Amino acid sequence: MASDDFKGSGGTGESRREPTWEGPLLLMALTIGLFLMGLQLWLLTLAFNLYLAGDQGRVVVAAVISGLIFLGGWGMLILLDRMAARRGRR
Amino acid sequence: MTAERVEPIAGQDERDRPLSNRTRAERWSVAFPFGWDADELVARRNLLRWAVMASGALFAATGVIAGLSFRLERRRGERQAVIAAAAVPPGSVHYFAYPTADDHAILLHLPDAGFVAYSGKCTHLSCAVYWNEARGQLVCPCHEGVFDPRTGEVLAGPPPRPLPQIELSEMGGTIYAEAEVLRGL
User: Fold this and answer.
1) On chain A, which terminus has fewer CB atoms closer than 10 Å, C or N?
2) ipTM surpassing 0.90, yes or no?
3) Domain ranges of chain A
């Protein structure tokens, strides 16, 4: 069997996609997203600690920051989906 | 071994060629029509989608805690007589229950700071804190948490917060507990 026999299975020749910056962007989004998820987990423990301490104001701040991180991730996902759809139409 | 290839007949649509006339790689691509690069993108995009969902769950949990904090009372308990002041000489301790019969509390008569009282529930894992006279400290025996008897602040060990303070008043020679106050980080 030729060593490059399977390379052609949808990945080489005319079917192979042109290199785009979507892949690296997705990888960057994932890396940053996973880091921010760690931050959210820390914020959750901090919020619980503040709740037990009766510090309402700072619990709300922690929740708002966590919400902004979630919205940022969601926005990035929507952006990438739109980019992929636009590329698919081309 | 090399894959045998059958040249397409002129004019014949590629899609109409029978599978038996194709190379192994072509047959494979018909069965699994996903390119390597597309496969990677799908996996990473799905991972990102799951990450965003997990992020939403973490936000929701933090939001629930924030919502609950609006219902939390920083001060709790009602005025309650604790003990006659003369029964607790300087340097001694009195254990009592406040704000409910199930809540362990400690009244200290410090020679230099007068009467102070704290919740006796350790802020780490709720073990009962006791007065260690030899060390002059409030100590939690479970994980060696140590609290300052003057302020209730954490001096050592794993407790994350100071002990809730119990506000006191003295009237007619009797010590009264007024309220238990949660304290911040």
Assistant:
1) C
2) no
3) 40-90
